[in-house]
Amino acid sequence: MKLKSLLVSLGLLAGASFAQAEEPLKVGFVYVGPVGDLGWSYEHDMGRKGLEEYFGDKVKTTYVENVPEGADAERVITQLAKAGNDLIFTTSFGFMNPTVKVAKRFPKVKFEHATGYKLSKNLGTYVLRTYEGRYISGVTAGMMTKTNTIGYIGSFPIPEVIRDINAAYMGAKSVNPDVKMKIVWANTWYDPGKETDAANALMDQGVDVMLQHTDSPAPLIAAEKRGLRAIGQASDQSKFAPNAHIFSVRDNWTPYYIKEVQAVMDGTWKSQDFWGGFHDEMLTLASINPNLPKDVRAKIDATYTAIKSGEFKPFTGPIKDNKGNVAVPANHSLTDQELAQVNWYVEGITDEIPH
Amino acid sequence: MDSELIVQILFAAVKTGTPLLFIALGEVICEKSGVLNLGQEGMMLMGAVVGFLAAYGTGSAGLGVLSAMLMGCVMSLIFAVLVLHLGANQVATGLALTIFGTGLSAFIGSGVVGQTIQGFQPIAIPLLSDIPFIGKILFSHDILVYASFAMTFVLMFVVNKTRIGLTLKAVGENPHAANAIGIKVLRVRYLAVMFGGMMAGISGAYMSLVYTPMWVENMTAGRGWIALALVVFASWRVGRIMLGAYLFGLASIMHLVLQGLGWSISPNLLAMLPYVATVVVMVIISADKFKEKLLAPRSLGKTFDPRQMA
């Protein structure tokens, strides 16, 4: 890893000295997983490739994959900054503090940290509104379930995941008042074996449509084997389960990366806390299965349009939490800052949030 | 909890325990000969990727398993040459093998990430699978699960009842004495290590061909390490390894099932169960110093040089 980034940066230096006209803008990426995870890191790398395709010779990108969250991350980010990158994206929540530290030491370099909340003059953050996709997933699952029981495979009980569980449940409830949701925490972002076990445990208990907040396509494969349905996560996972797959909520980082690089080139880059969803095409519904009933498909399209246009916001009050307190008052939609702190289950979810 | 759910849970426990059973059976034989191979995870991953590549290329899951076994052997041979022939430190070499296997498997498998195959289909054994309760739990699996049953019983017999088993244990307990009575210590150890590699290969193939029929980086997610704990848990007894593997399987299933049933137990606590069980067993074993010596092969992890006297 160290060697790779060193070689790449050496290559960049060599490339730069031969460049005649203007020097390309150098952009660095730090990934938490392998680019081959077919989920989170894979999509970030697709974003990086999209950037190269769009700008051609005007950008040079470098990435370091499989970077553990912790002390190693700081070293990797420092290296990228020293290698002369003008803009560095750190793409996991756990890179937050290392990024803050390095950003302080390299005030001329611009940093962007995904899913975090700490900002400074040369450090911005960017977050996906995955709950928008999750709401549509809930609507679809609520319509498709025959047992009135849908399943949710969670990773870790952090606000992002809890927010999405709420969105999915509200979506399902809006079309199916009798729906129940079973939640299982796999305690991992990525373990195909464990995700399979979780999927089977849910299906054994009467779940016939599954949503997942973990990154491997294993739950889809498990659903395919049993002739049940599931919704893909982060990237287009349709090929793993041609019959079971309903659609995948795909992360699409390319437009954002292009926008930010352009801003740096134009000198208009500013540190900000950016939230992107359907409206910005940073989330898309990939490979909607043609085998869905017509009314379900129509409802998916209608909900998508309503959220994309901003006409409908899933977290609009009145919403009560499952302890009976008012979580969102009437006529109020949660602001981005409030969304970042959701730590309650919506009314109707019978489980407790694990601590 | 109705009886049907219990059957499904136990069925899943057997399935989840099977890769652990394969790899731990291999490791226990290896350790019985006195060699500690910490490269399990690396060999398993190589088995998984090569098995998948072969099955994907030829369309035959059987060939996939064979290739995985072969790959496991090759990986363990690298280890064997280093530690047996060249006298390298077993712990360090094993760790290196894991790191090597993890990286190499990711590299050679990158082309088939996202491909799917038709793995093994379940075969219900006639008559046996009709037994109520037991039939569904034990006899409606795929062929590899049955192979793991057979392997356990064969190994129990070989280790406990035959001359081969005696030779293996002699080499692991006191290689110098074994050498003195004319046993070729290094040859026995080579074979034991390669058997371990072969079993790790099958275990990997089970992951990529049956359990989740696909290949993704690091898909074994630490099962090679659990197998090492399992060998200690089973106190180096073949029969107990089977029991332990299914208990581990059950523990990891239960924490998911209970959540689905709405029990408000912290999933972290439940996920910890298999490891807590291992620690408890290790504490019990170590409490009795004399017993510990009876159980762990006495020359475990030590380099043997036939030219040197004990």
Automatic annotation (TrEMBL), chain A:
Q: Where is the signal peptide?
A: 1-21
Query: Could you name the domain of life of the organism this protein comes from?
Result: Bacteria
- Residue ranges occupied by any ABC transporter substrate-binding protein PnrA-like domain in the UniProt entry: 26-301
Gene Ontology cellular component terms for the protein in this record = plasma membrane
Q: Check the record and name the CDD domains matching this protein.
A: PBP1_BMP-like
Keywords assigned:
Signal
In Swiss-Prot or TrEMBL terms, this protein is called Nucleoside-binding protein
> What is the protein's species of origin?
Marinomonas rhizomae
TrEMBL record, chain B:
Please, which domain of life does this record's source organism belong to?
Bacteria
Any Pfam family: BPD_transp_2
Q: Is this entry keyworded Membrane?
A: yes
Task: Read off the CDD domains from this record.
Answer: TM_PBP1_transp_TpRbsC_like
What's the protein's topology in the membrane? Answer: Multi-pass membrane protein
Could you tell me the keywords of this UniProt record?
A: Cell membrane, Membrane, Transmembrane, Transmembrane helix
Transmembrane residue ranges: 6-30, 42-59, 65-88, 95-117, 137-159, 190-209, 221-238, 245-263, 269-287
The protein's name in its UniProt record: Nucleoside ABC transporter membrane protein
Protein localization: Cell inner membrane
Q: Which GO terms describe its molecular function?
A: transmembrane transporter activity
Q: Which InterPro entries does the record cross-reference, listed alphabetically?
A: ABC_transp_permease (IPR001851)
Q: What is its main location?
A: membrane
What GO terms fall under cellular component here? plasma membrane
